[in-house]
Design goal:
- With 328 residues, the protein is an alpha/beta fold.
- Helices cover 39% and strands 17% of the residues.
- The strands form 2 sheets. A 6-stranded parallel beta sheet has the order 1-4-3-2-5-6, with helices on both faces. A 3-stranded antiparallel beta sheet has the order 7-8-9.
- Helix 7 packs across helix 8 and helix 10 runs antiparallel to helix 11.
- It is globular.
- The two termini are 37 Å apart.
Length: 328
């Protein structure tokens, strides 16, 4: 019996080694000399037509100014898919007139250099003219009902219309099997998942846990706007989420008390101007009230710190863990 077990283990190990070797070969095949930078839809589609139908295209949409949070998305995509496509496009349709579209960091050359160290086949970096030939104010759009009554949607009117529209366009262009998004933009993840479901798009949305600095601050391209003094204060977003999380873990289910705990922590820092603390249903982003009997809560925060707007979120989960598993 032991001999049979050893043989079974040997064959499983050989199969796993062959699979990993095949994946390494495919990644080298598509990304042997760094990613190909493509600026036009026509050129991308010509490249996409050459990808064998048996290959799963992984897609990481970004606005550039890449950091370790983006790189984690790329690594996850490369682990699950080959080839991998990263888009870099600062979408004017998701910025309000008073927001930071003009000063949003644009670092394409640096971003491509970073991606050379990863298994990325293509960087799709279109211009606004390429994405919106008639102009971004004169094009069709995608909207999600009631989104502007919910936390981030209420705080940034028109934002999710812009996100839904550009994501739909990018999905149509890239034709991915899987698309990878960071949990930090929690409401965006909910909107994109709903978009894929309602419009019957043939792809899977993969949500990857937030990547944080050692002090808890969620990685974000906008962190570079912070002064050194503001950077020291910024981790208070995560501290406030964890304070509410501790209350939740102790059995508190009153939504207002969870909000109040987070707000109490935020108010301890005079430089922080809270915009909202939200406790919502993670399935649709709908705001909750009273005492919630849901096993999972989507808790999110937005603040202004100096001239910089920061967001963060966590999923509070009381779902029983399988026996023998470790709590996360």
């Amino acid at each position: 019996r032991r001999v049979h077990g050893d043989l079974r283990f040997f064959f499983m190990l050989r199969q796993l080694t062959a699979t990993l070797s095949r994946r390494v070969f495919e990644h080298r095949r598509y990304a042997s000399s760094g990613p190909r930078v493509i600026h036009s839809v026509a050129e991308y589609r010509a490249w996409r037509a050459q990808v064998p139908p048996t290959q799963k295209v992984g897609f990481v949409p970004t606005m550039g100014a890449l950091h370790d949070g983006h790189i984690e998305l790329v690594r996850r995509a490369a682990f699950e898919c080959e080839p991998v496509v990263v888009s870099i496009f600062v979408n004017p349709k998701q910025f309000a007139p008073h927001e930071d579209f003009d000063k949003y960091p644009r670092t394409l050359e640096r971003d491509v250099e970073l991606l050379k160290q990863q298994s990325v086949s293509v960087v799709f970096a279109p211009s606004a003219k390429e994405m919106y030939p008639q102009g971004h104010n004169d094009c069709m759009y995608i909207d999600m009902p009631n989104i502007e009554q919910r936390a981030e949607g209420a705080s940034r009117p028109g934002f999710f219309r812009g996100v839904s529209t550009v994501v739909t366009k990018l999905f149509n262009i890239v034709q991915p099997s899987k698309a990878f998004f960071g949990q930090k933009d929690g409401m965006q993840c909910i909107v994109v998942q709903r978009l894929v479901q309602d419009l019957n798009m043939p792809l899977e949305v993969v949500v990857v846990p937030t990547v944080r600095e050692s002090d808890g601050l969620a990685m974000s391209s906008r962190n570079m706007y912070l002064t050194s003094e503001e950077r020291e204060v910024a981790p208070i977003l995560y501290t406030s989420l964890m304070a509410a999380r501790n209350l939740f873990d102790q059995g508190e289910r009153d939504v207002n008390k969870l909000k109040e705990r987070a707000e109490e922590v935020l108010s301890s820092e005079p430089a922080v101007v809270p915009q909202y603390v939200s406790v919502a249903d993670p399935r649709n982003g709908g705001e909750l009230s009273g005492s919630s009997d849901l096993d999972r809560l989507f808790v999110s925060i937005a603040v202004k710190l100096g001239s910089t707007r920061l967001i963060d979120c966590e999923i509070f989960d009381r779902t029983p863990k399988p026996e023998g598993s470790e709590a996360s």
